[in-house]
Amino acid sequence: MFELILFSILNGLVYGLLLFMLSSGLTLIFSMMGVLNFAHASFYMLGAYFAFTMSGYIGFFPALIIAPIIAGLLGALVERYGLRHVHRYGHVAELIFTFGLAFLIEEVVQFFWGKQLQDYRVPEVLDFTFFEMFGNAFPAYKAFMLLVSIAIFVLLFAVLTRSRVGMIIQAAITHPNIVAMLGHNVPFIFMATFGVGSALAAIAGVIAGPVLGTGPAMAFELGTIVFVVVVFGGLGSLSGAFVASIMIGLIQTVAVALDVSVSDFFGLFGMSFSPDDFLVDVWTITLPQIAPIIPYLMLVLMLIFRPQGLMGKRES
Amino acid sequence: MLEVRDLHAYYGKSHILQGVNFEIGDGEIVSLLGRNGVGRSTTAKAIMGDVPPNGSIVFKGEEIAGLKPHQIAQRGLGYVPENRDIFPALTARQNLLLGQKKAGKSGRWSMEDMFDLFPNLRERADVPGGVLSGGEQQMLTMCRTLMGDPDLVIVDEPTEGLAPRVVTQVGTLLEAIAARGISILLVEQKLAIALSISHRVYVMGHGRIVYEGTPDELRANEQIRREWLEV
């Protein structure tokens, strides 16, 4: 049992921090623009594809730096020449714009790389077992993912709370006009935030691509979970996004690992189900089978009982 | 210092400013008076580029109509918003630091000057702006703008909802600002401080300037006061 818990927690942290790399950027962008960026996970996908192609020429580690920079610049261009113009037509237009962009990026990716999964692999230097316990191996690459995610988290936190740029961003989120009239270039700050948010998503793509798979569906697959995370944590709340990322990361990995069902619970009391019992399929369904549903179930329950999310503020 | 000619501004389809003309000289304190809804705040926001202006606004010899708000601020125009719009999550000190246009660049005013003027702010420098009292927040918004070393400050309704003792403090600060050679445009509804510290006053009505004179002339002109100012 101990090894199960330990490995589930480690895997949950890897996945949760990965989710936070996406949800942090999405949350910052939402706070500034007031709009959920549907194309956010597309930059995660671009990061993975860019790094996959580049690593063939320059190796994995240079690609880990350069791919996010390119994706970040693309993000900044999208804000500067796309969203900023759509902004004047209101939130609905912006939402539809990001929705369209997500499809556009997916099509473009398929155009260049095709529909099949890419052979994007863990780099050889990191392809070994980090430690082994009770017969279970923890791969070095996952430890590397954990390390990169924690470094990004610490850096983001330090910049936002300790630096002048972070203070300007915090102030611009709530009072963009006032910040501008103090002489700060608010449109530029918005563009840069969008770019950095996209770059963070791309870093997540670079490091997750070899583990979760690099294919045209990857943006949609992770994107939906990231939306669950930001809504569950509370739209616009960075700490909420962090807590929700870790929670959903842990819950999903633990649920996959615990092979139990309702019938096991009754089994403790000596009761068992026969194949003819009423709704037998429901009672014998196992937790790993419903694991993919759990985040969405959490989302629905949260919206019913606490619509502002864990730490979000109710819009007045 | 500032020359506004035939300034028009719109909110949607409503024509708020209908040809405003006035000017402010170097080191002058000028008040823009009028009842609610006549376009005083809109005039201030149009000068700052926060509301798109139509017409001519010349600041220190340069046309600034059409520039972006941060460009206008960078040229030396300071704006103190109404409603004491501080950044609530940041501390008082951080609020002041954001007033500086570049990190560590202080001009005529240093952080110490602000604390000397308002010892309260020194004591509460490291508490979040959101928990300061109304009067402290008003001082903070004014000091924050001064940290950017403006040549002209537009102060929008600084005494609204403040206790009389704090109103006096606001008046003292405005005089301290003027003593350093900075021009002031005071946008006010109430006459009290405006008449006591201004060199000249303008009265607005229906999106236009309807009267120009000295505070003494306005005091003597009961008809203008009754028609355009008194509620």
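qc> The longest strand of chain A covers residues 129-133.
qc> done
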